[in-house]
Amino acid sequence: AEEGKLNITDSVQKFFPLFPYTGMTVKMLLSQRSGLPNYGYYLEKINWNKKVNVTNEDVLNTLIEYKPDLQFTMNKRFNYCNTNFVLLALIIEKVSGKTYAEFLDQTFFKPLHMNHSFVFTRNDWATATPSYMWNGRREAFTYLDLIYGDKNIYSTVTDLLKWDQALYENRMFKKATLDSAFTPYSNEQPGIHNYGLAW
């Protein structure tokens, strides 16, 4: 958006013309007000073959093909949903002409010298630090583990410190952009726990 390649008020259909939910915007995805169902739940309902790893494109294509019902009328209220971030990652790819991993690496990780940060892919299975369950057993990979945008950015404490410093020193985003991200957008219920643009 800062590069003028999109506006957060753009319709999702601008990027994916067959997207079935008319009027949904990038801002609704960012503020978790889209009403979209979580891909993990609706893929169960359509009996996705769990021997096949789901990709971001699969999430988009199943939304287009099956048109699962929205959880609520779009922009009516807040509801955190990973599907929003999957679509946002795809929009980044569409607009930038790069993979999500390339975009993050070239735009953030390399310029900030975050040398140990990357987007996880199938090639990283053997070397990435695994996750463990509460009882110490290694968490197994599942058919949902190659999706990115909502997860799969690996980093270190040192790299995250570099990210944090750059963020608050306005080396990554203009102050106005950060202010809009920090602004709460779901004011249906009073309280201090509110959600901005992916913040």
Question: Please, could you describe this protein's structure?
Answer:
The chain has 199 residues and is mainly α. 34% of the residues lie in helices and 2% in strands. The chain has seven helices and two strands, in the order αααααββαα. It has helices spanning 26-30, 39-45, 56-66, 82-96, 100-109, 157-168, 175-182; strands at residues 118-119, 153-154. A two-stranded antiparallel ribbon has the order 1-2. The two termini are 16 Å apart.
Tell me the strand percentage band: under 5%
Quaternary organisation? single chain
Q: Are there runs of 5+ residues with pLDDT below 50, and where?
A: none
Helical fraction equals 25-40%
- What strand line-up does the widest sheet have? 1-2
The number of distinct helices, counting runs of at least 4 residues, comes to: 7
Please give the largest β-sheet: 2 strands, antiparallel
Number of strands: 2
Cα-to-Cα separation, first versus last residue: 16 Å
Query: Which structural class do the helices and strands define?
Result: mainly alpha
Shape: globular
User: What does the average pLDDT come to?
Assistant: 95
- Using only C-alpha atoms, the radius of gyration works out to 18 Å
SSE order, one letter for each helix or strand: HHHHHEEHH
Topology:
Layout: H1 26-30, H2 39-45, H3 56-66, H4 82-96, H5 100-109, E1 118-119, E2 153-154, H6 157-168, H7 175-182
Antiparallel strand pairs: 1-2
Helix pairs in contact: 3-4
How is this structure best summarized?
This protein has 199 residues and is mainly alpha-helical. It has helices spanning 26-30, 39-45, 56-66, 82-96, 100-109, 157-168, 175-182, and strands spanning 118-119, 153-154.
